[in-house]
Amino acid sequence: MWKTLHQLAAPPRLYQICGRLVPWLAAAGIIVLATGWVRGFGFAPADYQQGESYRIMYLHVPAAIWSMGIYAAMAVAAFTGLVWQMKMASLAVAAMAPVGAVYTFIALVTGAAWGKPMWGTWWVWDARLTSELVLLFLYAGVIALWHAFDDRK
After folding, report:
1. Domain Cytochrome c assembly protein: where (predicted)?
2. CB atoms within 10 A of CB 57
3. Residue 67 belongs to what domain range?
């Protein structure tokens, strides 16, 4: 099993597999995203307490979940790269960091946009909001560290 995993993690084999899967996964993602947006923004009724402003949750909650999920995946990839010295693991961490930062930024902006009509302010120093801001800073640190060194061995 470990031999198979190492063979799948080798750059030529991994690029070959990803090259075949990307078009299919992109098409499936576009279909699912379009369906979700139409159903969430078009057909869902207004909330009785929040009115139309609740619809931002259809964007905010998935962005927050993905921002934390990508960070967990980065931790697993970094652990794999450090322990088993897999070359693709550090590249995966470097590739995931900007995507996670974008999702974190989207979660912060949409959360602030929802908070203004609900709480009357753009920002409160709640633990969840502050931890998402710290996560954005952590992503920025990972990106900065990756670009700080020329020799990435």
Report:
1. 6-147
2. 16
3. 55-153
